[in-house]
Structure formats: C-alpha cells, structure tokens
Amino acid sequence: MVTAPNVARPQCPVTNAAFEPCEYDQLHHMMHTYTVSCADHTMHTYAVSHADRTPDVGERAKRATPPLRSSKEWLPRFSSENFPQEAIKDPILDIVLEPGDLLYFPRGVIHQGVTLPDVHSLHITISSYQKNTWGDLFEKLVPVALKIAIEEDAEFRTGLPSDYLRYMGVAHSDFESEGRSKFIDKVSSLMKRLFDHAPIDAAVDQMGKQLMHDALPPYISPGPAS
Prior knowledge:
The protein is an alpha+beta fold and 226 residues long. It has 2 domains: 24-128, Jelly Rolls (Sandwich); 134-211, Arc Repressor Mutant, subunit A, CATH 1.10.10. Helices cover 23% and strands 18% of the residues. It has helices at residues 134-152, 178-194, 200-214, and strands at residues 32-37, 49-53, 60-65, 93-97, 102-105, 110-115, 121-128. The strands form 2 sheets. The protein has a 4-stranded antiparallel sheet, with no helix packed on it. The chain has a 3-stranded antiparallel sheet with strand order 4-3-6, with no helix packed on it. Helix 1 (134-152) crosses helix 3 (200-214). The longest helix has 19 residues, at 134-152.
C-alpha cells in the first residue's frame, strides 16, 4: 500500500486544520483530500460537487468537458471509469491554475488535470454532496414505509387475484384486458396509499446520520507503512 508522500501538510482553506496523511485509496472517502501530482490525470467524472484549490506549489492545467454519451450520465451517483482521450469532446474550459486559485465544477463534469512541464503540482480537493439526492432519500424512505404499511394497513395484506398470471407479466404487457386494467389501477392506488405511511422525518434523520458519519476522517489502524 502506497501512503501519502512526506510533504508539508497543507491546511484546509475552510477550517484551517492540517490535512492528515492517509492511504491513497481512502482519500476520496474524506470530505477534504490532498494529493501530489507527478503525472497527468486521465479524464474522469466524480459523483460529487467539488473544488480544486492550488495552494502554493507549481501550476496545473484543468480541462473540463460536459457529460457525454447519454442523458443517464448527467448527475451521476458514482464516479466514472477513466475515459480514453479519443472519447472526449472539445473542452468547455481549458485553464491553467495559478497558486491560490480555486476551481469549482459540479457533479458529473468530466475533468482532467495536466501537470505542466518542469514543475510539480499540489492541489487540494474539497468534495461535497455525494449521494445526497432525492433518490437516496427514497432509498431509505420507501422500504420503511412499505414495512409500516404492511403491518398497519390490511389493504397491503390482501391477496393478489388468483388469475393474475394470466394477464400480468412481460408476456402480457402488449395486450389490454379488463383484468390487467384493474390490476394496474390497484397498484397505482396502493402506491399513493403508501405515502400515508411514509416516515419522512425519520428518513431525513437517517440521511443526516449518514452525513455525520461520512464527514468523519477515516480511522487508520497503527502500523508501519508499506
């Protein structure tokens, strides 16, 4: 495992706290990270909104392009793979960061850092807003709402029609029938009814709990670096 290089520890521009070194594979799980760039970075996206700040050493070129290929890549939940250079469109921004500059780019913007010749580059990445979407809230909300609905509402415990496999399922999806229409109407009615059992505040509390957990620095057990 490669550990952070022995360099002067930069300070967070927000809290003025010194960044502690840690293993590289844990850097992106921290709210604040620092790295030393010795080579160019391949194109990629992050599933977070973040800012790069060049504190005091060297220069660094940043190239940014909008998301590509399909609308499904807008506002990603997870960081992308590295893109081959030939797959990237013309950049919307190509700029050299000077010491002290701050560059913000939103979640999903494809970006690449290029260290200029004959200089080294130090940059601090401040990341935020990962997995903080309506979809993430619903992932916590809907399972609990369904559990409560099944326990408290007899409508959710009512048996399915005995013949539902004769008109429902992918094999029947292109055919209209009275039984199919009634089945879909019932599902729609129960989905709306599910909202009445949704513990929205409790789900929001779980989102806040996760945020507090993820904001903590990673715990690294003592031991020699290898």
